[in-house]
Amino acid sequence: RETRLPNIRDSKPSSARSSRQESKSKDLQVAEILDAILPPREFEEDGKLWIQPVSRTPATRLDVINLAEKLDTRLIERNAREIGICPIRRELYDQCFGQ
Fold first, then answer.
1. Which of 10-19, 37-46, 66-75, 81-90 shows the lowest per-residue confidence on average (mean pLDDT)?
2. Among 13, 38, 60, 63, who pairs with 54 as Cys (CB 3.0-4.6 Å)?
């Protein structure tokens, strides 16, 4: 498989300002889509209302590996069953994928 570098002549020039505006527009679209799929969590703490949206930053490979290791450790610590319906496993998976 061959990788081809883009030819400068192939692309249209654009101002830095329009590129930034397009980037902000795309970020806003991503935020709206994520909020529609996973609505922000609202909770009250110390008499204040907090709103926590889902993170817009993609997880790194290391983040995923660390999370999987923590999940495995907690499953073992709490003696979750490996087969069948297990409320402990369900609780831990809900916590894991709720983040």
1. 10-19
2. 38
